[in-house]
Design goal:
The protein has 156 residues and is of the alpha+beta class. It has a single domain, classed as minor pseudopilin epsh fold, CATH 3.55.40. The chain is built from 1 helix and 8 strands; from the N terminus they run αββββββββ. The strands form 2 sheets. It has a 4-stranded antiparallel sheet, with helices on one face. The termini are far apart.
């Protein structure tokens, strides 16, 4: 008696080289399409982070004037460098804090402008003149506005 033999097809164990190459090429194409968008997101993030630092420093200067019950002066020394000191009556006034922000194409922020460059901050929280700070980098712009009443807002 002959037993009927059943021929089962061979089961595959794993993947073929062709399938692996197709998957690697597909991942490469997706990565190439996503890379420029990731670069723009990183640039936007750097500008937003720098705007947050400057806005926090401005709020800190206003708080510092109220806490010390003394007028403070915010002065822009050069692009990316500003100081907050006791009201300027002599060159030896106490510097309360100084910030040096990296400005340039590699830093993410290409321009940083303060208008006006010097502002008096009074203990009541008022500012001698409204101030606008503009940060720009790779097509991203953030504007920080300080009202005469001392309100700090990041716009755009």
């Amino acid at each position: 008696m002959n037993k009927p033999t059943s021929h089962r097809p061979r089961q595959r164990a794993g993947i073929t080289l062709t399938e692996l190459i197709v998957v690697v090429v597909f991942i490469g194409i997706l990565s190439a399409m996503a890379a420029p968008k990731v670069g723009l997101l990183v640039a936007r993030s750097k500008v937003n982070q720098a705007a947050g630092v400057v806005a926090a420093d401005l709020e800190h200067a206003i708080t510092l004037a109220g806490r010390r019950r003394r007028p403070m002066t915010l002065t822009v020394e050069s692009p990316g460098v500003y100081t907050v000191r006791d009201r300027a009556t002599s060159p030896a006034d106490t510097i309360r804090f100084r910030r040096v922000l990296a400005v340039g194409p590699d830093a993410g922020v290409s321009t940083l402008t303060f208008a006006p460059a010097t502002v008096q901050i009074f203990p009541s929280g008022a500012v001698s003149a409204p101030m606008t700070v503009t940060l720009t980098g790779r097509g991203n712009t953030r504007i920080i506005a300080v009202s005469a009443a001392g309100l700090v807002r990041i716009t755009q």
